[in-house]
Amino acid sequence: MDIEGSLDNEKGGTMPSTEQLTGERADLLQTLRRHRGFLLQTVDGLTDEQAATRSTVSELCLGGLVKHVADCEHRWMLFAQGGAEAMQREPIDWVDQFRMAPGATLAGLVERFREVADQTDELIGTLDLDAAHPLPQAPWFEPGASWTVRRVLLHLIAETSQHAGHADILRESIDGAKTMG
Q: Scanning 14, 19, 72, 177, which has the fewest C-beta atoms within 10 Å of its C-beta?
């Protein structure tokens, strides 16, 4: 499977390619796509039941991780465009953010993940990477701190990578499959 190509727009959309972007923007886009690809490769071939399986004592399930990463990316890109106020218009479901809701399908979660990724990819080509916004008030942020769009993208890469690793562990405990090795 082509990891970086796993998010290609099947509808023939106009997502920027790393060939259309140069330098830092191309590097950020390529790295984010690579880690998204690892997450999608990890859930490839699962049934909805497997995707909803909690294989550890935590609330994590593979479908829930796909949902969480898409939601997180969506909210942070709202922040990149309009600051904390824009980000906070989307409520966070702290209880169920890592679970698959009843009736949810892995295919539906992956479709939303791809839609969010497409939107982010387009924004990477247009947003001012140096534009900064004050972070929302939260115990885990330094009071009065601001993040640039660049920092948001670096955070998304780290978040996606971390959760792709979580997904790999969960998948291995479900059916022995490994993303890497």
A: 19
| Main-chain dihedrals φ then ψ at residue 46, nearest 5 degrees | -85, 150
Per the listing, tokens 């218009």 go with 89
Cβ atoms 153, 28 nearer than 8 A:
yes
The tokens 């247009």 sit on which residue?
Answer: 126
Three-state secondary structure readout of the chain: CCCHHHHCCCCCCCCCCCCCCCHHHHHHHHHHHHHHHHHHHHHCCCCHHHHCCCCCCCCCCHHHHHHHHHHHHHHHHHHHHHHHHHHHCCCCCCCCCCCCCCCCCHHHHHHHHHHHHHHHHHHHCCCCCCCEEECCCCCCCCCCCEEEHHHHHHHHHHHHHHHHHHHHHHHHHHHCCCCCC
What digits encode the pLDDT tens for the residues 26-85?
A: 999 999 999 999 999 999 999 999 999 998 888 899 999 999 999 999 999 999 999 999
Question: Which tokens is 45 given?
Answer: 């071939």
The two tokens of residue 142 are 């330094």
Q: Is the distance from CB of 39 to CB of 70 less than 8 angstroms? A: no
